């Protein structure tokens, strides 16, 4: 099997690339720089040429602008990056026969507190990020051999100029930076390392359609940070509790819990719980990879 990972220098792309190598999968990484192949995913011709020339058996698209401000302020760029490429990839894969996996998001649900949303739950599109990601899901599904993954991935990228959520949390805790932690913003986080293993298992099943792949439990942002701090023996007394609804500006979906019963049934094993996720993050933080 030959695999092409688009966005192989991002947090998920790097983890997937490493895991594919561990499993002796022939894998090609593509990104704007620093990868096996150089490609701008917004360039239709370049994207088409890449897939046709390398002729992979499976294409995984991990590329996205996740910065809400950027998506809101430059909606055309958000569309060209987050949505349009899924249509192009689906079209090309339908000609080459390659499988297509598109990594989506969980930013579709609001005012549901800790509810675990299934793949069939109604969505609410409250900002440009959600709109472009949802459009991409529809584009991807125009191809019968596509799999759309809804998830909430956490992990490390090791780029000080562009911290991931977990990296920000740890820096905030170590430096004791005052911070307001939301007790009403809910997610089902899964560490990128276990997610990569699960995704490669899913490929073997030939699953298509939309699928939630996330942590088994729904946590508030505050709960997640407190559990991470406890695992790292870091103090949280410099933080305070607040509501996500205090934020002004771009509206955010805040009830992002995902129901993972479907993927557990497909794979025959459970998704990681909060302790699994935190332990994996701590493991990688200390370089025990």
Structure description:
The structure is a single chain. This protein is an alpha/beta fold. The protein has a single domain (2-285), classed as NAD(P)-binding Rossmann-like Domain (Rossmann fold, 3-Layer(aba) Sandwich), CATH 3.40.50.720. The chain is 41% helix and 16% strand. The chain contains ten helices and 13 strands. The chain has helices at residues 11-22, 44-54, 68-73, 75-96, 128-140, 165-175, 192-205, 221-231, 261-267, 274-285; strands at 2-6, 26-31, 37-38, 58-61, 99-103, 146-150, 153-154, 179-182, 186-187, 190-191, 209-212, 219-220, 239-242. The strands form four sheets. A seven-stranded parallel sheet has the order 3-2-1-4-5-6-11, with helices on both faces. The chain has a two-stranded parallel ribbon with strand order 7-10. Helix 5 (128-140) links the parallel strand 5 and strand 6 (146-150). Helix 4 (75-96) runs parallel beside helix 5. The mean pLDDT is 96.
Short description:
The protein has a single domain (2-285), classed as Rossmann fold (3-Layer(aba) Sandwich), CATH 3.40.50.720.
**What is the radius of gyration?**
18 Å
Note the run of SSEs as H and E: EHEEHEHHEHEEHEEEHEEHEHH
Number of domains: 1
Find the structural class using helix and strand composition: alpha/beta
CATH superfamily: NAD(P)-binding Rossmann-like Domain
